Each structure stands twice: as structure tokens, then as C-alpha cells.
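hey m, so remember when u said the C-alpha cells were messed up on ur end? i reran from scratch. heres the input so u can diff it against urs
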Amino acid sequence: MPQKRALEDYPLAAKGPLECALEGRALLNSSFFNKGSAFTVQERKDFGLEGMLPVAIHTLEEQVERAYGQYSSRDSPLAKNSFMTSMKYQNDVLYYKLIGTHIKEMFSVIYTPTEGEAIENYSRLFRRPDGCFLNILEKDNIGPILSKFGKEEDIDYIVVSDGEEILGIGDQGVGGIGISTAKLVLTTLCAGVHPNRTLPVVLDCGTNNKVLIEDELYLGLRQPRVRGAEYDEFIEIFVQAVKKQFPKAMLHFEDFGLQNARRLLEQYRPQLTCFNDDVQGTGVVTMAAIMAAAKVAKMEVKDLRVVMFGAGTAGTGIADQFRDAVAAGGKSKEEATAQVWLVDKPGLLLKSHGDQLTTAQTTYAREDEEWSSKDTKDLVTIIREVKPHVLIGCSTRPKSFTEEVVKEMAKHVERPAIFPLSNPTKLHEASPEDIYAWTDGKALVATGSPFPPVEHNGKKFDIAECNNATAFPGIGLGCILSRATRLSDKMLVAAIASLAAQSPALKDPTRPLLPDVEDVRRISAQIACAVIKQAVEEGLNRIEDIPVDNEEDLLDWVKGQMWNPVYRPLKKVDKSTSSRAAKGELGIGRLGASE
């Protein structure tokens, strides 16, 4: 039996002393190395910090208590978001420890919906740059710019946005850097991706947001958004530069416009390890909820019929994951596709809609003859004909799942799965409370925003939130640790199965269909294991000797490489011979200048 490797031999070992070549003010200005009042007496001597800090030495827990008091004193979610952004610039460990300690309370502040408001006001709230800013007028300089953030082995995860379709608030131009940064925060918070080995990028192509262009403080290009061949050339140069500079990194596309999101994903998936959370992440987490619902309802996923109400990027992404999961069970992709009905602005999508359909929608369009004498614009009629087991809303049309719609679902299915996923909350297709009332508590519900438990006939039902943060960080971690050459469909299906297997509803049907974000690090580790095992099975791994034959050893191997918000001892090293990591020059953990 091969001897188990020591933790320090793991490629991204997350324990033991940290080499640090900084000292004095430079050390205090590095968010990755800074400990504030927690520096020990010896560290203060070794790194020239005497006189730069108050004499008291506090624990991380004491710092969290103080920081939480400061956070709580802010009088609005946006003010709290700004406070947390400032903390992130100062001290990574304290920032992530504070969020992790109060994750349920803070999640909506550091991410949606409050982060959307922060992005809308990016140019007016700007304090210091944090990320990589590339603009379409300087395409020839992309390679040299990326090289400033690390060498081949230095960056694990890149999130890039062109700012066109941000969190449901539309075109935010250069403010798109905010969503890239926020997504990377989630990868570290939820899956222990090392924060100094990540890179947020915005591709500034101009903006069609008139408010931004007319704002004298706007920080991006003041020109209409570039499209067509010039845009495609910009993306191509960027992707090829990423492949050259960071060939082992995962590239995560985020909040691209409808006409580009899927197109770019499909174009570049064969070339490198890349991912689009709007397309694939939403699909993975929703498919996991469907899989859990099927088990609770004692049905097979391969037998389900699904109506998708809203067929944009998210809706078609969910449809694709359902198709792939069914196909993985033995059916052909054509047979699996036939089990999905898409409904969008024209009504049920039909072949005759032709050019009105996106490439992703065309696959699912139905034959007109099947519906020649039926009202394809009426959701009740569609449900009456299809008799779906699952109804999913991605329409952003509030209250569109009416009592008549829901009751029609319940006529044909004993345990209908109804998922109003549109967010924020005000845009949901139906409230969980109404769905349970209209189905006499028989429905299986998941939502796109957090909802409180619902009481019906003396029973309390916890509501599952289809939160992408329970999926994409673990997928990313699995790709990073295996150094996958690409992210395959089967790797995504493995992630779905892992997330579904952790459903609390499998033990108690009144519990949510998906695990809670409070358990997200445990969830992410399990998902990473599933992704790694599938990558190895398909020969897509570049790291050898991964212990995939022993589940316990594999989980230990994954956990041993997850970054944790703890203060590690600092080991002084000579700056002239030290690594870029020791000099604080990597990713977003590097030193950064204030205005």
C-alpha cells in the first residue's frame, strides 16, 4: 500500500509558515500578509513593525468581534458593503473569518442584491483599483498586462466580465470588475481557493448605459459598446493571452450579454478549462434540486418532463444540464431534449419562430404540428398538455405562476416540483407560501432568493435556495486541484450528483432540497472530490498521484489544499531571492496603491 503523502507535499498545501519578504509599512499594506493587532511580539521584531502598531496583541476572534461591531453600526446594506470592501483591502484573513462567522447575515451584503447596488455606483464609490483592467482600445497590450499579475504557476482562478449584463441590472461598463471580484470572494469563502492566486478581470468595451456615459466621474471608456468582429478579436486576444500566461488556470466567464455568453463558452470550452456560471452554474444547482426532488417523489430523473418558463441564458443552461444528466443515465441526447419544453416571450418555443430563437433555444423548439390547435401563449394550456413533473421559472415576470397554473400542475403529478427562480425576491414567479397552499403542501419547492420557512397544516417546510455558491466554487476547486485540461459535461454531472446527494430532504422531506450555504465549505470539498474523480476517469487531469481510489484520502487531499482564514506564522525570507508570492505580488493579494 503506497505511503500517504505528508500535507506539506501537497501542491497547494495550506498549512505551516508563510514565506514573507515584506516588512514595515509594505507588510501592513499587503492584505494577504497583514495581521493588524494580531502580529506576535517576535513577528513585530522580525519584520520591523515596532512602533507601527498599538502594544496590545489580539486574537483573530477578538478582531472579528471588534470588526462585527463596526459592521453592525453601518446603517444600510450599501454602507455595510463599503465597509467590507475596505476591510478586504486591509486584511484577507479577518475579512473572510468575519464573513464565515456571520455568513447567513452577510451573504446578501457581499453578494446579490447589495453588490449590484455597489457596482451601479462603482465609479462614485471608487477608492483603489483591485483587479485587471483591459480595454478594447489597447488590445495589443493584453499579454504584458497579464504578466504583471503572476507567472505560469501563480494564478489558479480568473473571473472575467465585460460588464454587459450584471446581476439583472444590465450594462455597467467598467463597473463589471465588481462582479469579477465578488465571484472570486465566493470561491475563497466557499471553497478555500487561495485569495492571492486569483485574478478578477474586466474587459472594457464601452457601455450603452447613458447614465454612466453622462456621469463625469465614470471611470470606463466613454463610447458605445463595441460589437461584432472587433469585439470577437478582443476576446480572442484575451483568451489566447490567458492560455499563454496562465495555462493551468480556470477561466470563469461572468455576466456577459445574452448574445455572447453561451457563444463564447461553446467556442472556448474545447481550448481550455473554462466555465460560465450564468449558463452552467445555474444549471448545476437547479439540476441538483431536481434530482433531489425526484428522489423524494420516488421518481427517476430519466422519466421527468420539464417546463422551463423563461428561456434566456439561465433557462437554457438549466435545460442543458437536465438533458446531459438524463443522457448520462443511458438515453440519447435527442430523447432527453424531447423531455423539455421552453416558454419565453413568444410563448412555447416552436420551430416556426426561426430567427427569433437563439442557438441554445433552437435545440428545444417543438414541431408546430404538435400544437396547431392549442394556445401556445397560455401557460395553463401548456401545462395541461405536457403534464410536467417540474416547472421552473427564470422569467423575471413576477406572480406568473398563478393559482390556476400551480393547481393545474398538481392535477397531474402527486409531488410537483415548482421552482420560482427569478431574483431578486420581488421578481419571483410565485411565493413558496402560495405554492404550498395551492398544492395542499404536496409541492417540492426551490427558489432563487432566500425565503423563510412556510407553515402549512401544522408542518414547517424549509425552503431551498438555488444558490450558485453551493456549486461553482467546488467545481472550480476540483478543476484547480486536478489541473484539469478542460471542464467536461461529465464533470458537471458528477458535481450535480454530489450536490444532490447532500440534500437534507433525502432524510426528511420537510427539509430543503439543497444544503444551506452555512455548510458550503463541506459541500464544496465533496463536489471537488467528485469533479476530480471524473477528471481522472476521463484522463483530463495534469496532477498525478491523486488518491482517487480512497474516498477518505481524497477528501483529506482536497481539504489539505483549501485556504483557511487563520493567521499562519510568517517566515522572513530575503527579498532578492524570494518568490513573487513572498513579495505579495500575486493576483489580488498583491500590494495595491490607494488614490
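this time it looks ok to me. The chain has two domains: 22-272, 280-468. if urs says something different then somethings off w ur setup not the seq
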